[in-house]
Structures are given as structure tokens and as C-alpha cells.
Amino acid sequence: AQSVTQLGSHVSVSEGALVLLRCNYSSSVPPYLFWYVQYPNQGLQLLLKYTSAATLVKGINGFEAEFKKSETSFHLTKPSAHMSDAAEYFCAVHSGGSNYKLTFGKGTLLTVNP
Amino acid sequence: DADVTQTPRNRITKTGKRIMLECSQTKGHDRMYWYRQDPGLGLRLIYYSFDVKDINKGEISDGYSVSRQAQAKFSLSLESAIPNQTALYFCATSATGGVDTQYFGPGTRLTVL
Predict the structure, then answer these.
(1) What is the mean pLDDT of each run of 10 residues along chain A (114 residues)?
(2) CA B56, CA B38: separation in Å to the nearest integer?
(3) What is the 3-state secondary structure (H, E, C) of B33-63?
(4) Cis status, amide bond into B8, omega within 30 of 0
(5) Which residue of B41, B58, B104 is in closest CB contact with A44?
(6) A53 vs chain B: nearest CA distance in angstroms?
């Protein structure tokens, strides 16, 4: 079985501050990991994904995430928050194999204060 | 035009009514999914289909049914809607094999009174 835990349902940062959104996963096999973003009144779109290549993954809009097997973590970071980053962020895990199903975390709402 | 479209975008219905949510995609993907989003619960998989003849239940399929009319179309039905099915519903697609990205539609907001 696979699962994802996102620590903090709501994170608030100031514009220009570091963004850190936490994700821990559980998987019986080496996982594939994703971060999706949902802007208000929109569907989800992919920010970045880890597929067992480089452990530091760069995504769109200046976000990146680092896969740490020893910590079973895949935290999302951005050095300097912009107002446009305000959205809900979802971490997801897929344990490979032919049945391609994603398991999503419960989401973290990011608020960016001016 | 959007690659994954959902109709309707908003729907209000009454308890006991049958309702169908439709999803169409122009990405040429074989795999399609229906998710439900509730505040604080994230996205939960209702049904998924890996091709036209393949339909599988997800983690919360009770009270729902689906139909894969063609490669590009995947419909979700609530045979007898109940208030706790009030939620935001998303359709998604992905290519076959590997760990391809899922592409989401804009969602349908369903309210059951």
C-alpha cells in the first residue's frame, strides 16, 4: 500500500520569503513522487515529478523538491514566494507497476502575504 | 481549446435524482480517471479506465457508476444522488505506461440538496 502525508494543511508566508511545503510518503517499493498545484477555481496541474533519476527535481515557476529516501520525504521549496504562488498544493505517490494509480495527500493551502 | 473538458461546470440537484457528469479529452490518452475532492480530504479516486473495455473501481466507488463511451469520453453517474455526494469532481487522463503525468479537467462543482 502507498500513502502520503502532508504536514500542515495551511502555510502562510510573506512575499519574498522561503516556501517549504512538507510531504512524507509510504511505499513498499521505490516510489514515483509528484507535486501538483491547484489555483483557485481550476483543475490540478503538475509542478514537478521524481522518477528515480536525480534526487533534486526542478519544476515550473521556480519550485523544486528533493527526494530523501532515508527520511521518506519529498518536500517542496521555493526560495522567494510571489503573490501568484497562492494556491493549494498536493503531493502524490505512485508505486510503479502496470496499475498506474496516484494516491494524493490532503493538500496544503499556501497563502502569500504582501 | 482545453485538452480535458468537463460538463457541466456547476450543477445543483435534489436528493434521489440521477445525474451524469461528462468528460471529454483531445489528448489521445487511453487512461481516464474520476476523482472527488472534498475540503481537507484531498482527491480520492472513484473509478478509472485504462482503455475502452477496462473499467476499475477506485477507493470510493459506492453510489457511483461510469461509462467509457469511447477513448475520448468517460462519464460518471450518480444513480440516486445524496447530500454527502456534494463535492468537486475532477476528470483526468494519462498516457499508457510508465509514470506519465495526469492531466486534469477544470472540475464540476456538484451540490445535492
Answers:
(1) 90 97 88 92 91 88 94 96 96 75 91 96
(2) 22
(3) EEEEEECCCEEEEEEEEEECCEEEECCCCCC
(4) yes
(5) B104
(6) 13
B10 Cβ contact partners less than 8 Å away, ≥ 6 residues apart:
B108, B109, B110
- For residue B64, which of B40, B92, B34, B90 has the smallest C-alpha distance? B34
Say if A29 is an interface residue toward chain B (CB within 8 Å). Answer: no
Q: State whether A32 and B99 contact (CB < 8 Å).
A: yes
Q: Are B102 and B45 in contact (CB under 8 A)?
A: no
* The pLDDT of residue A98: 62
| Sign, CA torsion B41/A19/A42/A92 | negative
With cell 480520492, the residue in question is: B44
Cα of B94 to nearest chain A Cα, Å: 9
Interface touch B107/A102, C-beta < 8 Å: no
Mutate to test the interface with A, among B102, B103, B108, B109 (most CBs of A within 10 A): B102
